[in-house]
Write a structure and sequence with these properties.
The complex is a heterodimer of chains A (about 325) and B (about 350). With about 325 residues, chain A is mainly α. Chain A is built from twelve helices and no strands. Helix content of chain A is about 75%, strand content about 0%. Chain A is flat, with a radius of gyration of 29 Å. Chain B is an all-alpha fold. Classes of the chains: A mainly alpha (about 325), B mainly alpha (about 350).
């Protein structure tokens, strides 16, 4: 018995011995492939990160330079008028105010609908109807924003109001925002422990009061996140605004109340970037103010995105 | 004989399924409100489809299926409209974007989830999430200033010929049977389908990455450890254990990226050059339109009637294509994502 075992062991050693050169070569190839792939994968990550940094660098550098440019294209000390004045006076104030009006209107319409739909999905939503709401909310988030623009522009601008208006732009943005809010609110409400609901219901509190007074307040940071995320998304939307607000360059009227009128065409930061980017390079103020508008817009969006991340730190919310 | 089982008639309280349900009118009202909001979301998509269908009916009735197959877009003389060149533009630019973005996105997701130490992985994934937040119009403006000159520029030196990626590829493949036509004559001085595809690739990177990263995270560590314990190298583990497990989810992520590429409007509008002539559209270096960029540039100027109806019809075709791609990839992610709550619903 013992001798047989020894024999087998020797044979096994002989076999590995014979192939060891091939084995070693094969192992070397495998290691080289492993290294090459690690390099490629790292390169891909580097490329993705590098692209963003290059874009950010361009927008910040050119945008900051534009704050020193006057309406006639000359440069001087910091141009505080840039944020308030009209283009003929060297500013993009109407565009900033327009973005505030349109995004504000959009949020005003989208927040109640979005939060309530999110409450439905989390607190009541079961079965096929809930699946449909959830699925269609996701479909709406993926809907090309230009389609939303066409929808609002044909229905309201062309066939109801008969003219471009800030309100039409706000409605278009609300259609983009509501599904985002609904899905985020659903996700955060699902994180609220059931024991809270049960405790409240056991005390005889009606369900609606339980939701309004117990569930929603305990998830408030997540709800704010959803709203903030949707605002960050809506603030940069250009295509739907192009078809609905027209993007004028001047204020509507001389007093502040008149300038807030949502029933007339207004301007916006994204449409200003689009229009001014189309000018030839010798129109110095046009091009530079497009960079300035880009910097303001990207700052707003990044602040809101960071705010959303900060509000949900440590929680898993998409 | 007739014993009524209706609780209202025999005077017993109606059994309650949910505590508190039906206790007060306020409950019913609140529930109704939330149901209505959910219903409003469904209604919205239906309304979008109906409005687009209704206002494009004139063009659809007039041209029928030839609207999809015809290349003619003539709003000034003949009032004839066909969308094929724009469908072609959308599909071509999206395909270029997918080919370029998918390997980079999957590679970068693998780096973040498998290779990078945690102190590096967190900021890298954060930076890439920021990339998703940059608005389309800023991408377009940046691409005009940076990408277009890289594609094609004529140095301000006497006697210098055009330089850049486009002339390089054009000269490289000159005379080749198929590639010679694809990388043909440069008409848009740096703008065109090719540039639009490259810009789209950058824009859909974060979309594909966020899904594939989530999916790669769900690969059970035991599978990886098992392979490593058998002596597999890191790459073999990824290739044989991680990628096959995550394949469905990655394809779904690519599909969502495709959905974004199809509908992306402003960046494409700014770099595709905007031409409705359809001359030489097989050539990637020529100017054209995607469906989205056509709608964005022509809607406001379209005359009421057949012209507007045709523009809306292009929007309808875009809606249908992107809805199919979106629904398909969402279902794919939904059914292949293994037990991951954040992806399933």
């Amino acid at each position: 018995m013992e001798s047989q075992n020894t024999l087998r062991r020797t044979n096994a050693l002989e076999v590995t011995g014979k192939n060891s050169a091939i084995e070693r070569a094969r192992f070397a190839t495998r290691r080289v492939v492993n290294l090459i792939m690690a390099g490629l994968v790292g390169l891909a990550a580097l490329l993705a990160v590098g692209l963003l940094l290059v874009i950010l660098y361009y927008v910040v550098q050119r945008g900051f330079e534009s704050f020193f440019v006057r309406a006639d294209g000359t440069t001087g000390p910091f141009n505080f008028n840039f944020f308030t004045a009209t283009p003929s006076e060297g500013g993009i104030g109407p565009a900033i105010l327009g973005t505030l009006i349109v995004v504000g209107l959009g949020a005003l319409i989208a927040i109640p609908v979005g939060v309530l739909a999110g409450v439905y999905l989390s607190e009541y939503g079961r079965g096929r109807f809930a699946f449909a709401v959830r699925f269609i909310a996701d479909m709406l988030t993926g809907l090309p924003s230009i389609i939303v623009g066409v929808f609002v522009a044909t229905l309201l601008v062309r066939n109801t109001f008969g003219h471009y208006s800030g309100l039409a732009g706000g409605i278009a943005l609300a259609i983009i925002m509501a599904p985002i809010i609904a899905r985020t609110v659903e996700e955060v409400l699902k994180l609220v422990p059931n024991a809270l609901r049960e405790a409240s219901l056991a005390l005889g509190v009606p369900q609606w009061k339980t939701i309004v007074k117990v569930v929603l307040p305990s998830a408030i940071s997540g709800i704010i996140t959803g709203v903030v995320l949707s605002i960050a998304r809506a603030a940069g939307e250009t295509a739907p605004l192009l078809l609905t607000i027209l993007g004028i360059e001047n204020y509507n009227g001389n007093n502040f109340i008149g300038r807030l009128n949502p029933m007339v065409p207004v301007g916006s930061l994204p449409t200003t970037i689009y229009t001014n980017a189309g000018y030839p390079p010798n129109e110095v103020f046009r091009i530079s103010s497009a960079w300035g508008a880009s910097l303001i817009l990207i700052t707003i969006i990044l602040i809101f995105s960071l705010l959303a991340r900060w509000a949900t730190r440590g929680k898993k919310v998409r | 004989m007739a014993v009524s089982l209706d609780p209202r008639q025999v005077g017993t309280p109606k059994p309650r399924l949910n505590p508190g349900e039906g206790r007060s009118g306020a409950d019913a009202i609140f529930r109704g409100l939330t149901y209505f909001s959910g219903f409003a979301i469904i209604l919205l998509l239906v309304a979008v489809a109906m409005v687009l269908l209704f206002y494009s009916s004139e063009a659809i009735q007039k041209f029928g299926l030839s609207f999809i197959s015809s290349d003619t877009w003539d709003a000034s003389v003949d009032n004839k409209f066909g969308a094929w060149q724009f469908i072609f533009g959308t599909l071509t630019t999206s395909l270029i974007a997918l080919l370029l973005a998918t390997p980079i996105a999957v590679g970068a997701s693998l780096y973040i989830s498998e290779y990078a130490p945690k102190w590096l992985a967190t900021p890298v994934s954060f930076v890439i999430e920021l990339l998703a937040a940059v608005p389309s119009v800023i991408f377009g403006f940046w691409a005009l200033a940076v990408v277009v000159p890289i594609m094609y520029n004529v140095p301000n030196v006497k006697g210098a010929g055009p330089q850049g990626v486009m002339p390089f590829l054009h000269d490289l493949f000159k005379g080749w049977p198929l590639l010679g036509d694809i990388f043909g004559k440069i008409t848009g001085s740096g703008r065109g389908y090719f540039t639009a595809g490259i810009v789209l690739a950058i824009m859909i990177l974060p979309t594909i990455m966020s899904i594939s990263r989530e999916i790669i995270k769900t690969v059970p560590p035991l599978q990886k450890e098992g392979m490593l314990a058998l002596g597999a190298t890191k790459w073999e583990t990824i290739n044989k254990a991680v990628l096959p497990y995550a394949r469905g989810g990655i394809i779904g992520g690519v599909g969502l990226g495709l959905g974004r590429a199809l509908g992306e409007t402003m960046a494409v509008t700014m770099v595709i050059g905007g031409s409705v002539s359809a001359v030489g559209k097989g050539n990637l270096f020529t100017t054209g339109h995607t469906m989205a960029s056509l709608v964005a540039t022509q809607f406001n100027d379209a005359k009421a009637g057949l012209n507007l109806s045709a523009v809306v019809a292009v929007g309808l075709v875009l809606l249908l294509i992107s809805a199919v791609i979106n629904a398909g990839s969402r279902l794919l992610v939904h059914f292949t994502a293994p037990d991951n709550a954040s992806l399933r619903n």
